[in-house]
Amino acid sequence: MPILMFDRAQVEAKLTMPACIDVMAETMQALARGEAILPLRSHLSLPSGDGLLLMPSALPSANAAGVKLLSLFMGNPARGLPAIQGVVVLFDAQTGELKAVADAVSITAIRTAAVSGAATRLLANPDADDLTILGSGTQAASHLSAMLAVRPIRRVRVWSRDFDKVCNFAERESDKHDIAIQVCKEAEAAVAGASLICTCTSASEPVLVSEWVSAGAHINAVGAYTPHMRECDSALVSRARIYVDSRESALAEAGDLLIPYAEGLVTDSVFDSELGAALLGRVAGRQSADEVTLFKSCGLAVQDLAALRYLVDIEAKSSST
Are residues 36 and 167 in the same domain? Predict the structure, then answer.
């Protein structure tokens, strides 16, 4: 059987957001049941300071094993090249046969927002319809798609430090989704009264402050990805009911949680409520309409693997009909 190849355009065409949200919900539940194998990632540093990131994983129940391989060359934008490039590789977990290779950047963009979509579907108030997005990059666009897939969004506001970029984002995405998007010059104005908030920035210091956040809001915090970066202030983390994709990953990478923990404002129980366990009903979900819930996403290689497994499965179905 030939090895399947999925480039960016094919991934974006075939991995639809509603389908990916369902796949991610199933994957997080499999992780909570102990069905996923997820070793720690490996990093190869080059003398230039650039490097490679190697992230293996397996879902034996789905006959899937594989690896996500990324190159991180942060000087590339000046060369007219992407800073992050890579592939996801899928092997048959029973025979070791190479089954498929896919563009990792597009899979990551879709599956990250899809996990937030699964969290929002479970945790946000059913009538949550006022969306704020902080950020104007790839994840901001993907999260808009995910939120539109799980809630009847009535209003969208967006803020970013780069005003020209956020204006371009609003024009492009409003045309794509046929929904008005209001550009805000201040993050506080963008957040006021919002029932759904997605933080998709590269900020190292908080861009979302507790006193701005209305009772009953649900937050997806996805931008900060190191122990020293955060998008949410400590008061917000100590106020909200927190969920993570993986306790192990959050303890290693989630500055949004690690910083208030180091400050003594939260206990280590802030890392305990995994999304998969909540989806299975093993840990409590939202407790009241006024409660603030926050999903902190770190991203897991098994999510990329499951997305590629889905692409292979739908390709097999289409070729058999």
Answer: no
72 and 140 share a domain? no
When divided into structural domains, the chain yields a total of 2
CA distance 205 to 231: 6
| 221: nearest Cα among 134, 125, 111 | 134
Q: For residue range 191-244, what is the model confidence (pLDDT) as tens digits?
A: 999 999 999 998 889 999 999 999 999 999 998 888 899 999 999 999 999 999
Contact 43, 71 (CB under 8 A): no
Look at residue 113 and tell me if it is in a domain. no
Residues 164 and 279 in one domain: yes
Residues 155, 14, single domain; the answer is no
Instruction: Return the sign of the alpha-carbon dihedral for residues 221, 227, 48, 41.
Output: negative
Please count the helices (runs of H) and the strands (runs of E) in the chain: 12, 13
Enclosing domain of residue 22: 4-107+302-320
Helical spans, DSSP H, in the chain = 8-14, 17-32, 76-79, 104-123, 138-150, 163-177, 187-191, 234-239, 247-253, 255-262, 275-279, 301-320
Is residue 77 assigned to a domain?
Answer: yes
Contact predicate 105/69, CB 8 Å: no
Q: Does residue 115 lie within any of the structural domains?
A: no
Assign residue 203 the CATH number of its domain. 3.40.50.720
Predicted TM-score (pTM) of the model is 0.94
Which token pair is 252? Answer: 């290693």
* 310 and 278 both lie in a single domain: no
| Residues 299 and 110: beta-carbon distance below 8 Å | no
Q: Residue 131 has what DSSP assignment?
A: E
Rounded to whole angstroms, the Cα distance separating 19 from 311 reads 10
Instruction: Note the pLDDT tens digit of each residue in 76-89.
Output: 888 988 888 999 99
